[in-house]
Write a structure and sequence with these properties.
Elements lengths: L9 H18 L6 H15 L3 H16 L8 H19 L8 H16 L6 H18 L8 H5 L1 H4 L5 H19 L1
Length: about 180
């Protein structure tokens, strides 16, 4: 994803980090507390992918876990809470703001749409994650016209216009992966 404006390792980092999560979740499995499991898995994920983006995404997993502390199941409201906390965790760790052309632009848009869907009568995991993926796609697209402020993409700022932010793409892909999994259930 970032070969044109970075060092080309973002996709590898995300693959390694998210590829490790199922095993980490199983390793730290604790009946009755999904949040605690995610917090522990997020801490370990940070050491598996010790890059800037790896740390940001691991921070999102940890904050999302905090939002689910004590929960034994994930329903529509919990999924929405997780996504909002995930985005907040990235914003807190990365010290970024909306409009900075980062992963936050996609994740925040997805979390906001998820919250709206979760508040509707008859909300399901499917309706919430579908809304989140649609929002993340829109958020990712908005980054096309933003100037990068952070990372290696800032060095190539002139070439960035017209191309979605690679971090925003990674955030969208994360939510899209969740969507594909939920839609198979």
């Amino acid at each position: 994803m970032d070969a044109k404006m970075g060092d080309g390792d973002l996709g590898l980092t995300m693959c390694k980090g998210y590829g490790s999560l199922p095993d980490l979740i199983r390793q730290y499995a604790e009946p009755g507390d999904i949040g605690k499991v995610l917090m522990k898995a997020g801490v370990k994920m940070a050491s598996v992918v010790p890059s800037t983006m790896g740390t940001l995404m691991a921070s999102g997993v940890m904050e999302g876990g905090k939002a689910l502390r004590g929960k034994s199941r994930i329903g529509p409201a919990e999924l929405s809470d997780y996504l909002a906390a995930f985005a907040a965790g990235i914003q807190k760790r990365g010290k970024c703001q909306l409009g900075d052309r980062t992963v936050l632009d996609a994740l925040d848009a997805g979390a906001k749409r998820a919250a709206i869907a979760a508040s509707m009568a008859g909300a399901t995991l499917k309706t919430v994650i579908d809304a989140a993926a649609e929002g993340a796609a829109v958020g990712m697209e908005t980054t096309k016209e933003m100037k990068p402020k952070y990372g290696k993409a800032a060095v190539f700022a002139a070439r960035a216009v017209g191309t979605p932010d690679q971090g925003a793409m990674a955030g969208y892909y994360m939510i899209e992966g969740m969507r594909q999994y939920i839609n198979q259930m």
